[in-house]
Sequence to fold (124 residues):
Amino acid sequence: MSQPLCEKCAGLCCRYLALPIETPEGKGDYDDIRWYLAHEGISIFVEDGDWYINIANRCKYLNQDNLCDIYENRPRICRGYEEETCDYHSGDYGYELYFSCIEDLDEYLAKKTQRKKTKGKKKN
Fold:
């Protein structure tokens, strides 16, 4: 990550945490995701078949100029960000699935259930 690009950015990579979660398999797993989504600043996305919880939470070392106050001593995860994959110019993340609220998940589950019913009818 080069400092000049960071100077143009609003510190987008420093405003959230995305952590992998287990791929939901049953009703209980999806209900856990509904609970996550009941909280402010939480979203869920699927990328390359993997499920993630996204937590909107600004890094405490991001200063008023949107630069890192501990840049020379930043954590390994921060050092892993590269200009080519930077949030500054990625715009659309191309998620397979994205849920920002319980209603998004419920809509997805309703469609998924409908597809299963339709497949079941075709087999008969």
Helices lie at 3-8, 27-37, 76-79, 102-123. The chain has a mean pLDDT of 88.
